[in-house]
Write a structure and sequence with these properties.
Blueprint lengths: L1 H9 L4 H18 L4 H16 L5 H8 L14 H28 L4 H4 L5 H16 L12 H8 L3 H16 L1 H6 L12 H14 L6 H10 L4 H7 L3 E2 L4 E2 L27 H7 L23
Helix pairs in contact: 2-3, 2-4, 8-9, 8-11
Length: about 300
């Protein structure tokens, strides 16, 4: 009688409730072992449920079948076709989202996330190549037939101390055979050095230091300090202490890209400033004076 009442009541159950009742019947059959009565009831309920399955959507099917009534029940999955369609749809959305993310990352850097002005890799590479080209434009001119390729290469890789040594050797070569034999330049020999050679050396220093080092830079600072050596040496950081003692050459000087402006190249001034002054006053570093045109009108009178 109890079973008949249960069967009559099951006629009024909806699809979701049929799922629960069928699952419960299967579990009861496993526990009671009543000759398969639970399995038969469950099969009947599943058939009725399949007949009503078209009336509910995937969300209700999954909700009804994924929550068993007690711990020993085994949830019956939704149809294989429904599960596959939902899984493929989710995978497709996830893959398309990842694809869009990769495209953004490949096309711009993180700056676009903050200020809305993305910088593409091509633009960044273009900026770098532009800076390199401006350095390579320095022509290695020499009226004496000297090679300045080693100096250029040392400056390019930031070997500031070796570049300073090479500059000193080139200055000796420019001065001539007598300077080479003695190993240093006498100040009276500087005036005979060709303009092209001194300018090549200066332009290389200026280009690779981004306008920080070079004879022309030192000339501007020296002139700004009204050619007073003590003030000039303080500004380019060649002296130290309260007494402005001259730094020990070369150990106490700074061979790096961010030393004081005009700090390099070095010129030994321990025996006096005549050599350094001769270099700075060389015609190669003369500032071009502006031409002032004077005209006399027809009505003016010359006195």
């Amino acid at each position: 009688a109890r079973k008949e009442d249960g069967a009559d009541q099951s006629k009024h159950l909806g699809p979701a409730q049929l799922n629960v009742e069928a699952t419960r019947a299967e579990g009861n059959d496993d526990e009671d072992d009543d000759g398969g009565e639970g399995k038969r009831k469950a099969a009947s309920l599943w058939e009725r449920r399949e007949g009503q399955g078209g009336k509910q959507d995937d969300e209700h099917v999954l909700a009804a079948t994924s929550r068993p009534s007690h711990a020993n029940t085994r949830p019956r999955p939704a149809s294989l076709k429904q599960m596959l369609s939902l899984s493929l749809s989710s995978t497709s959305r996830s893959r398309s989202a990842r694809t869009r993310t990769c495209e953004v990352r490949a096309g711009s850097d993180l700056s676009s996330l903050f200020d809305g002005t993305p910088t593409t890799k091509k633009e960044d590479e273009g900026n770098k190549s532009g800076a390199e080209e401006s350095v390579k434009e320095v022509e290695l001119n020499s009226e004496l037939g000297l090679s300045y390729e080693l100096l250029r290469d040392l400056l390019e890789v930031g070997e500031w101390e070796k570049a300073d040594d090479e500059t000193r050797l080139k200055l000796i070569e420019m001065a001539g055979p007598e300077a080479e034999s003695r190993g240093w330049v006498y100040f009276t020999e500087v005036k005979d050095i060709p303009v092209a050679d001194l300018q090549t050396v200066d332009k290389l220093w200026s280009a690779y230091s981004k306008g920080r080092y070079g004879y022309s830079i030192q000339k501007k600072i020296w002139t700004k300090n009204k050619k007073v050596w003590t003030k000039f040496f303080v500004e380019i950081d060649w002296v130290q202490g309260e007494n402005n003692a001259y730094r020990k050459w070369p150990l106490e000087f700074f061979f790096k890209e961010d030393a004081k402006k005009g700090h390099l190249p070095l010129t030994n001034c321990l025996r006096g400033t005549q050599l350094f002054q001769a270099v700075l006053e060389h015609p190669a570093f003369e500032e071009k004076k502006k031409k002032v045109s004077t005209s006399i009108g027809e009505g003016s009178v010359k006195i």
